Amino acid sequence: MDDNLVDGLHRIHRVITRALAVARVYGAVFSREGFGDARARRGFLDYTRCLVLLLRAHHEGEEELLFPRLVGAASRGTLAELEAQHRELVAALHDAVAATERAEAGQPESEWVDELMGALSIIEPRWRVHIALEQETVTQALLDGLMSRDEQVALLRALSEHGQKNGHVPELAVPFALYNLEAADRAALSRLMPPQVTHELMPGPWRAQWAPMQRFLLG
């Protein structure tokens, strides 16, 4: 199966959608009962930090690389609404990133878990509304009227590279993205990555770093 921009966008949307739901479920438990041990804290912090940094990078990538290409094809009102939805997410996303930064600095869970959960509770419903409109707007027919399939693949790769550059460290971000996807999606995303990363680094020297997140990931 060839790389495809529409499929690639939907795939990253599925990563973020699942991770938001997982983070909220586990976060509610940890807020109520505590982490219990350092490994659980480390795994949850790594997982949620991957989530919020990916979401921020995804928004920035769309605004810089995708939305400008849609001018003249998508309606001006729809583009304005998509951009407004991004702005509506910014404040809560800023709070979520800040909460994970405080956690990384060693602050006790009472000072960041509830704030993070509050931010995610705002982000998740707004995110679902946003991707519904975006996926309704950015269709294969619309893209085919704007650019060739090769240009679409190049844009998909540029968006992927932007996300990797501006997300969390690859030792965490790569397994986070891959293992928040079911097998078919995982294989498709893997094709955008160097084989050395997926076949050697991730199961090898990176393994100890992302292993604390494993309970939150798909097998």
Descriptive key words:
219 residues; mainly alpha; Four Helix Bundle (Hemerythrin (Met), subunit A); 10 helices; globular
* First-to-last CA distance: 23 Å
Tell me the series of helices and strands, N- to C-terminal: HHHHHHHHHH
Number of helices: 10
In one word, what is the shape?
globular
Q: What percent of residues adopt helix (DSSP H or I)?
A: over 70%
Folded structure, characterized:
The protein has helices at 5-33, 38-70, 76-104, 113-137, 140-144, 149-166, 170-178, 183-190, 195-201, 207-210. The two termini are 23 Å apart. Helix content is 76%, strand content 0%. The chain is globular and about 55 Å long. It has a single domain, classed as Up-down Bundle (Four Helix Bundle (Hemerythrin (Met), subunit A)), CATH 1.20.120. α1 (5-33) packs antiparallel against α2 (38-70), α1 runs antiparallel to α4 and α2 (38-70) runs antiparallel to α6. The protein contains ten helices and no strands. By secondary structure, it is mostly helical.
